[in-house]
Design goal:
With 328 residues, the protein is an alpha/beta fold. It contains 14 helices and twelve strands. The strands form three sheets. The chain has a five-stranded parallel beta sheet with strand order 2-1-3-4-5, sandwiched between helices. Strands 6-7-8-9 form a four-stranded mixed beta sheet. The chain has a three-stranded mixed beta sheet with strand order 10-11-12. Helix 1 packs across helix 7.
Length: 328
């Protein structure tokens, strides 16, 4: 098949095409935001499901169903993806009593779903349907219907799934996020499923992996630099905290401070060589804060304080800690 090339439009025309597509989908999402009682019923059904949420789709809707499955799983709802086309070749075996079936189909009349629906009905599995065709076989078979507003596709021919799949994605995300909140999940709960990457940085507090107690390199301000260097070498962090009797941070001595003051070291005290007002974190700071602080200041260690006002040292984070966690 050959295509006649379209004439080259100017930039303003291209920009207008993009804006029109986005506006079409945005207007549809605004209409979708007015969810009704059926949304609450769907949330209640999924929340009470003893088994898994089986998310089923085909074609473009199948891609959205697969993504939503990942979102449900990542936010505390046990879920599996079922490809409607593969269902008739053995994948129907994933359906079990106690599950709930969520079907995504814009037209609602795709024949592959018939087998899936019959299997679900035979196992007394409740069905939630997301479709724009309220008279379709899927809609009529559903226990709960989440009807999509009748909105045009962003495709200029009105055929390529664009607006419809965007609405499915948003509605599925709304279900997942609502369930997450109703289950009372905390950042610590989410961290179990997101230990690495950007989410790991956002969800992991430094309290969970910082060095503390006898592992911390403390030195008194009046101590000699010989003692300071010994402490830095012994603890292995390349830094020491200069503290008072209450372990309040007065300053730090790093390898860099030693190199910059090499000629003044004989006879000098830790308090004379230290860098006062160093970069610090406070308990409850996230791994992302530690990484940003160390990257911004080009340092490899940062001390964590109990609270900023008192200044008592609670722990220390080294760049290697982040690398070991896979989020550095």
């Amino acid at each position: 098949m050959s295509f006649a090339p379209a004439p080259n439009p100017d930039d303003d025309a291209v920009i207008e095409m993009g804006r029109r597509a986005i506006a079409t989908e945005a207007e549809a999402l605004w209409s979708l935001a007015h969810v009704d009682q059926s949304f609450a019923e769907a949330v209640s059904l999924i929340r009470g499901t003893r088994g898994r949420l089986i998310v089923c789709g085909l074609g473009k809707s199948g891609h959205i169903a697969r993504k939503l499955t990942a979102t449900f799983v990542a936010t505390g709802t046990p879920a599996l993806f079922l490809h409607a086309g593969e269902a008739i070749h053995g994948d129907l075996g994933v359906l079990m009593r106690g599950d709930t079936l969520l079907i995504l189909s814009n037209s609602g009349d795709t024949r592959e779903f018939g087998v899936v629906i019959r299997q679900a009905e035979g196992l007394a599995i409740p069905i939630i349907a997301i479709t724009s065709n309220v008279r379709s076989a899927i809609a009529l078979s559903a226990d709960i219907l989440l009807a999509l507003p009748a909105k045009p596709e962003a495709c200029p021919f009105g055929s390529t799934p664009t607006t419809s799949t965007t609405m499915m994605l948003a509605l599925g995300d709304a279900l997942a996020v609502t369930l997450l909140q109703l289950r009372g999940l905390s950042p610590a709960d989410l961290l179990v499923w997101h230990p690495g990457g950007r989410l790991g940085l956002d969800l992991l507090p430094v309290d969970r992996f910082m060095h503390h107690g006898e592992n911390l390199p403390f030195i008194a301000a009046e101590a000699s630099m010989f003692e300071a260097i010994h402490t830095i070498s012994d603890k292995g962090f390349g830094i020491a905290a200069v503290v008072n009797d209450q372990r309040h941070l007065l300053g730090v001595i790093s390898d860099g401070d030693i190199r910059r003051n090499i000629h003044a070291l004989p006879g000098a005290t830790a308090g004379e060589i230290m860098t006062s007002q160093p970069r610090t974190l406070v308990r409850g700071a996230m791994a992302r804060d530690a990484l940003a602080t160390m990257s911004g200041a080009r340092i490899t260690s940062v001390f964590v304080l109990e609270d900023e006002a008192a200044g008592e040292v609670a722990g220390l984070v080294h760049i290697h800690d982040l690398l070991r966690l896979g989020i550095g």
